[in-house]
From TrEMBL:
Similarity comment: Belongs to the 4HPPD family.
Name by which UniProt lists this protein: VOC family protein
UniProt xrefs under InterPro entries: 4OHPhenylPyrv_dOase (IPR005956), 4OHPhenylPyrv_dOase_C (IPR041735), 4OHPhenylPyrv_dOase_N (IPR041736), Glyas_Bleomycin-R_OHBP_Dase (IPR029068), Glyas_Fos-R_dOase_dom (IPR004360), VOC_core (IPR037523)
CDD domains, per database record: HPPD_C_like, HPPD_N_like
Pfam families: Glyoxalase
Cofactors named for this entry: Fe cation
Keyword tags: Iron, Metal-binding, Repeat
Superkingdom as given in the UniProt entry: Bacteria
Organism: Pendulispora brunnea
Lineage: Bacteria, Pseudomonadati, Myxococcota, Myxococcia, Myxococcales
Domain VOC: 30-163, 192-355
Amino acid sequence: MKEESNVSHGTGSADSSAKQSAPSSLGLIGFDSFHFVVENLERSRHFYTDVLDFKEVARAGNDLVTRSGQQSIVFGAGEARVCVSTPLAQKSKAARYLRRHPAGVMSLGFRVKNLDQAIQFLEVRGGTFLSDPIEEKDDRGGSYRSIEIATPLGDVAFRFVERNDFSAFAPGFVDSGHGNAVRPENMFGIAGIDHVTSNGLTMQPIIAWYRDVLGMVPFWEISFHTNDVAQGRDTGSGLRSIVMWDPGSGVKFATNEPLRPFFRDSQITKFVDDNAGNGVQHVAFAVDRIIPTVEELKRRGVRFMATHPAYYRDLPGRLEKLGIHNVKEELAELERLGILVDGSHDRYMLQIFMQEAATLYDESRAGPFFYEIIQRAGDKGFGFGNFRALFESIERAQKAEADKGGQ
Ligand SMILES: [Fe+2]
């Protein structure tokens, strides 16, 4: 910890008293919402309401639309809130974002217990505020206060929100009829955001920022390279990932960076290229029952990342090795739908990834972001074991094919 020096942080005496009484935590409660910027708002409305069964809970009121130069609609399922904006004027934040990136996440919002505490905590730790706090009261006595800070994720801001019975989604927003304050039912059982994963070309500045500014601690880390499984190839791909978390609230962030050799071929490098910088790669929604969810989403036209059949041939043996004997779901069903399994010692999770938006819509401006659907049965991990399992399965299947051909 740096002692008082010639370096001045803000106003001298106020600063030292702030240090003495610095709060011990940011006071996070959990995710509040995230803010997505798109070129085609109608397509997003169709995706969230008709496909994912989110309810349209709020939209920007006329004054806010005029002032901000952008139209925004808020979609909700359980506690998950996605605010989707599209620019109407070149001066808007959404237009600025889209001049620099394809569609993607412009800010992540978190609920805090007390905004003053959060501000004080961030101030002492060198957080960079983007503006003064926003404060608003409604006519029923509710209040909303928030502050935004810059992050090492390029143009992604973090927003901290203290809500006290505030009826609207945010100042300037009006309800669309489904009521933002309630928990909208979702036919898939989407209850909230499970985790958020970001990508960067080098993750140390991002991890250090989570630690030093937000006060988070390491939860887990892993690296995987296809070369670990198959040496001597002239192509390959790898990544390194660290998960940081806030133990008080359970908020978790995974951060990925590319791993050499073939650094430029890593899917993480490709994301950073396609996104024109660091950014949020995916958001995972937790569901109660992944099988009927995926079945219905497929019926509604959602395409998921394909899984090689060899993964399922190896799956019984892999589950045995992991000590998982209690998978309730039929493995044949998981295979039919392409759902992945990971975990250990009778704690498992089921996961599947949608194709990235640019692929789903066959349009590069739709961006490299994608959603994950996850069902947890005890396991708290992120399914990183699946990277290796998928690649090993394919390697084994290809080798078996080659051996058969040679006989
Ligand atoms: Fe994930």
